[in-house]
Amino acid sequence: MLSGSTSARWSARPILAAWHKPKVPEIPDSEAMNKRSVGSGRSPAGSQEPEIPPPIRVLYVDDEPDQLVLCKYFLEQTGVFEVDTAESPKAAFGMIHGNSYRAIVSDYQMPDMNGLEFLRRVKGMGIGVCSILFTSFRRDQVLSGGIHAPVDFFVQKTGDARAQYDDLGQVVRDAVTVREKLSHLKPARGSAEPEQKDV
């Protein structure tokens, strides 16, 4: 009897162990979760990417083709700008209509119309775009007699391509940011004159 009961106890242990074995929850495969998230249009937890703002659309006007190529290259490689170019004010006027530029950059000395006159006409169109004069001339040579030009910013070309386009890019960003912030504010007394900044 003793041996029989002992045998019974030992034979019962594996059965009880099977009855009380805890169930291990199934862990979803991470790759499968990612596939389901992509299929549902949702990002997996912890993988949300910050929203990338749209590029700043810029029109650059200069009668020198090399300057147009360099400006477009250096500004667009930052990933911040999308640059269209025009070799004359006449061509630029045709591009302004139907395009939502946030800044217009112009050289000063051009054959048919100088940059100041071009930007003055752009301002008269009332499209609310930032205007930037970009020239190798000094400010006192261009704005003689203290005449206020129809420009928001003045940037001088230095001859160092990377440095001058870095400066131009920063000025364009600042000009667009300031103008768009001010556009949401109601002026208390009339309208303020645009700030003119030398770089």
Question: If you had to describe this structure to a student in words, what would you say it looks like?
Answer:
There is one protein chain. The chain has about 200 residues and is of the alpha/beta class. Helices cover about 45% and strands about 15% of the residues. The chain has a domain at about 55-180: Response regulator (Rossmann fold, 3-Layer(aba) Sandwich), CATH 3.40.50.2300. It has helices at about 1-20, 30-40, 65-75, 90-95, 115-125, 140, 160-180; strands at about 55-60, 80-85, 105, 130-135, 155. Strands 2-1-3-4-5 form a five-stranded parallel β-sheet, sandwiched between helices.
What are the main properties of this structure?
199 residues; alpha/beta; 7 helices; disordered N terminus; 5-stranded parallel sheet
